[in-house]
Design brief:
Shape: globular
Low-confidence stretches: 12-36
Number of strands: 10
Largest sheet: 8 strands, antiparallel, barrel
Helix content: 10-25%
Number of helices: 3
Strand content: 35-45%
Mean pLDDT: 81
Order of helices and strands: HEEHEHEEEEEEE
Oligomer: single chain
Structural class: alpha+beta
Distance between the termini: 56 Å
Amino acid sequence: MRKHILSLCTIFTLALLLVSCGAQRKSSVSGGSLNNDGPSAREWRNGLKGKWVLNSVDREDIPAAYTIKNIFDEAPVDCFIGSVWTLPGGNYQGNIRFNAAGTLCADGASRNIIWSIYDIPNDNLHPQFQFKKLYSGEKARNVTSGYRLDLSYSDGQSLVMRMPIPLDNGTGNLVLNFSRVQD
């Protein structure tokens, strides 16, 4: 009987230890209560791995008269529609392959990127997708400029990221809507 009680206590202690050492979700204090802010940076990173096609780009709080000439210092917004974003794990060296034909678009061109999830604990911001463009012969550590997008939503098959656009009176967003490419 004593061995059974000792075995049960050991199993209970191990279970308690495993539960307490599990990954914690990002949370913050808001209005005096603890709120869960959504997926952690690790969960976002794991969920983004794979191939995504950019289906559409919507304007949010951007006046219709406001012109956006290009995004990511690369090309007009329309050139990115249909582009395939490959985001592998490991060293996080991916690429963006363009599939749009147009006057300023380079159909079939590919841009190498290094991507990651930007997250500073306790800053009350949600994790952000960030990437740097890499040109031939460049090393990622020597590239000092890049881009950050707010991670808004993902269910594993669709992904929504927001690109803040500074305006004269505040900020608007370009809303990038992706769907997963099945290999």
